[in-house]
Amino acid sequence: MAELTTIELDNYTVDRRPSIKEADRVKLWVRSGGRCAYCNKYLLDLVYGVNVGEMAHIVGWTKKANSPRGEADTPLNERNLVENLILLCAEHHKIADSKEAIEVFTVDRLALLKKNHEARIFRLTNLKDDSESVVIRLLGNIRGATVELSQQRAMVDLLDCDNKFAHFLDSFDKQGVEIDLTTLPEPEENWHNYWAMGKLIIDNAFHIIIEGVKKGRIRHLSVFAFSRIPLLVYLGYKLDDKIPTLLFQKHRGNTESWVWPEDGDDIEFEAIQTQNSSSSNVSLVLNISGTIELSTVPDSDDQNIYVLRPKNVLPTRDTVRKRQSLENFTKTYHDFLSQIEVDHKSCLEIRLFLAVPLTVAVVCGRGIMRNVHPSLTIWDYNGQTYAPALTINSRETN
Length: 398
Fold this sequence. Notes:
This is SAVED domain-containing protein. The chain is an alpha/beta fold. The chain has helices at about 20-30, 90-95, 105-125, 150-160, 190-215, 230-240, 325-345, 360-365, and strands at about 5-10, 15, 55, 85-90, 130-140, 165, 175-180, 220-225, 245-250, 270-275, 280-285, 305-310, 350-355, 375-380, 385-390.
């Protein structure tokens, strides 16, 4: 296309296309972090140091028919200002201005893209040195269902929820710490082998975590986990409480977000004893997201049975909707473990039955102190009855 030599403005004519002022160029590059607002591509060639970014107009720089989005009301003398410019790579600049995509890349869409990208860059570059968190993603099947969790989703949710930058340690597939349990068959097919294989996969994945902690590369963890409850308890046990850790909950509904909502009630919890026994045997039933009837607890005649439940509300799937509710549960659970040391000094094992959200399961494992608390045997429903799945904090584990 031949270069235009004259341009009709509102009430005057210039000889050539108006140039973008240096101040606006600098502002755009700084605000955009040198990255494409659409695909996040780094726009400085790392081999030759060549600038490969392009400053695109949201509203075209003239009102002529061939000017993309040029018919908008933005005054012509404001169209070269930084507010009307978006930094793109060459590929997406071409697409955004093409006739085929012009109805998709509208003024409003490009303006929102610019706003969100520049806001994200500002937040990321405003993070302090201690704002990095290593992400652990554990994904498995829950009765045939699983979820997807990309690095991008974990990165965005961690930034939105806690203003932290996600770091993914190298693994065999260069996708960070990925604990993949989705290849395991359903536990009902081979009960004992399922839990043994799940533990082994978690153990193998934790080698890189343990090494990172020893070398001081890992100072904070963020955990996104979706799997059968006993394996989440085991995950929590492997994490313990020595490294600051954030837990993220997959929330129900159409959204893919793992961000903790700010709305909802802060739920308190209580642990009550529902059955006394002269023995030192203890069973703990967690009725948090649902209710386990005590009549379904196997071999309960000689058990001291405790129920940990929400105060003044019925257990539902949204009981632990807010992070504060999870913290409240954590305190009640820790208090219960401490009280067991006082009331049942000879207790060597706690049997655990759980109707809980996924993050609560992780908390249950994480709260166990090695060589201090009794061992914890997690029972799970096998389709017919409750059966022991796995044990943590036993001599074999230690």
